[in-house]
Specification:
The chain contains 7 helices and 9 strands, in the order E-E-H-H-E-E-E-H-E-H-E-H-E-H-E-H. It is an alpha/beta fold. The strands form 2 sheets. A 7-stranded mixed beta sheet has the order 1-3-2-6-7-8-9, sandwiched between helices. It has a two-stranded antiparallel ribbon with strand order 4-5. Strand 6, helix 4 and strand 7 form a beta-alpha-beta unit. Helix 3 packs across helix 4. The longest helix is centred in the last third of the chain and has 15 residues. The termini are far apart.
Length: 205
């Protein structure tokens, strides 16, 4: 978008084309700092684009938050992909959202299920909504061990009961806003989605 700030990109290891992963961080966060925690997992699973929030955090230079505007964030991801040299991949985007980014990711999956087909939701600020995610090809919920594991485990169970392929992965010994063993745990999440996600958005049973 015009006058937007730069996005951050990790290119795919072997495949040309648009990144397959999009990362949205939480409140007063740095997308670049998070992306530095799992570049090899991103590279091995199609590449990633990460965007910061559209609003600066008052009193915290260099950190940003998102407006709760799914249409705006969809447009910003689309522009970031164009800037990376391609449009959205034809097989859809795997959206990785942490905290507030997970909440926005749910909204985007509900509005554009053909685009945001698979999701990795980390430490969501409220219970992930089955209604919003019921058309997803697959969902991985995640939490730090000392954050909201019960919330994210329950979400995976409720999604499976609704017919959505879903699983829970825990990061050890960390609290909200952190990533622990990010290469291993996010790599596990991406592999699980590749092996278990259904093909195409589906009607719930």
């Amino acid at each position: 978008m015009e006058h937007d700030i730069p996005a951050f990109v990790v290119r795919a290891e072997l495949e040309p084309g648009a990144p397959r992963l999009a990362f949205l961080p939480g409140v007063c966060s740095s997308a670049y700092a998070y992306l530095l925690a799992f570049p090899e997992a991103a590279r091995a699973h199609g590449g990633a684009v990460a965007i910061d929030g559209d609003r600066p955090c008052v009193g915290s230079p260099g950190f940003r938050s998102f407006s709760w505007d799914a249409k705006m964030q969809d447009a910003r991801i689309s522009e970031a992909l164009r800037a990376a040299g391609a449009g959205a991949p034809p097989e859809g985007i795997t959206l990785v959202g942490y905290s507030a980014g997970a909440g926005i990711g749910e909204q985007m999956a509900q509005r554009w299920p053909e685009r945001y087909r698979r999701l990795v939701l980390i430490g969501a600020p409220s219970d992930p909504s089955v209604q919003r995610l019921v058309h997803a090809e697959g969902v991985v919920t995640m939490s730090c061990a000392r954050d909201v594991p019960g919330r994210m485990k329950s979400a995976a169970s409720r999604l499976r009961a609704a017919g959505v392929p879903a699983t829970y992965i825990e990061m050890p010994g960390c609290t909200h806003g952190m990533l622990a063993e990010a290469e291993e745990r996010l790599g596990e999440a991406f592999r699980w989605l590749e092996a278990n996600a259904r093909k195409g958005p589906a009607t719930p049973r």
